[in-house]
Amino acid sequence: MFIKQNNNSKGFIQIPILIAIIIGVLIVGTGGYFGIKQYQNYQTQKTEKEKLAQEEEIEQKGKEKQEMEKLKEEIENLKNQKPQIIKEIPSKNSENQKNQQSSNIPSQPSQSVDISSVIDKWKPSVAYIKCDFFNKDETYAFSEAGSGTLFGFSDGVGIQTNKHVISKQLPLTGGLATPDYCTVKFLGNSKLYYVYHHTTSGVFNMQAAGDESDGARLIIRESDNFIANLLLQQGFYCKRKPSLGESIVILGYPSIGSQTDITATEGIISSYEYSVNAGNYYVTSAKVEHGNSGGAAILVKDNCYLGIPTFAQIGEIESLARILDEPGLLK
């Protein structure tokens, strides 16, 4: 009996061990299966990601290649295009800053002024003047020609010119002879404007500077639409003293030039000349011939009326003309 019990106990102990082994095998097998499955999924996902990355890389390289081809094409097109002038358009802020900076500085046109445009601006206002002198017996004596510039004065419309154009010093007596009348003619208008020495009521139409300066003016009493339009397009007096070396242009009708069109000569401001009785003058290298006197001296940089060209001073080498800085009578 005692021996049988021992045999049964040994058999009872082996069964749980067997079950535990089976369960352990199952657990290990199941875990291994899921581990392998998970690893396979990981590998699959990794392969797909690598494939997508390769496709994206190929696609990106294709886009880059297309952009490079397009860029090369644009470069070739630019090479074949003609040169173009590109003008920078300033922004509103830059314009405002520029205006603020220049608010305390007198406005001046650009230094690169086209002289032809300056001439076109002023030549319609420059007139050809011819004054006829008569003897006391009313017989014709002689004529004097010159140039002048149209301006509006406080007492009417008139021509600003030289005194020696509307008066002549008599060789015998030394006195001044004045013309009975002068005719004024403008470009683009065949009409002659007559300026008589005085009106029927005794008002003088020919006014010369009272001092020794060479300034004078003729008052045109028969103003019309043509003159009114000229005044609307009129330029302005220079508001500053020009510096030495600044460019000027002289407009007028010299005796050696054409009387059907304006003659223009260029020069610079060479020096200044001051006189209590004769007025202030700018000395210039620009040529002023007989007949050109009384025309217009224009400061090119500002495109403004500087003064009245007048006679020349003869030097040892060449002549230097003078420009009368408008006396008080003419303002």
From TrEMBL:
InterPro entries: Peptidase_S1_PA. The chain crosses the membrane at residues 12-36. Residues 82-112 are annotated as: Disordered. Signal peptide: none annotated. Keywords: Membrane, Transmembrane, Transmembrane helix. Residues 91-112 have a biased composition (Low complexity). The keyword Transmembrane helix applies. This is Serine protease. It comes from Candidatus Portnoybacteria bacterium CG_4_10_14_0_2_um_filter_43_36.
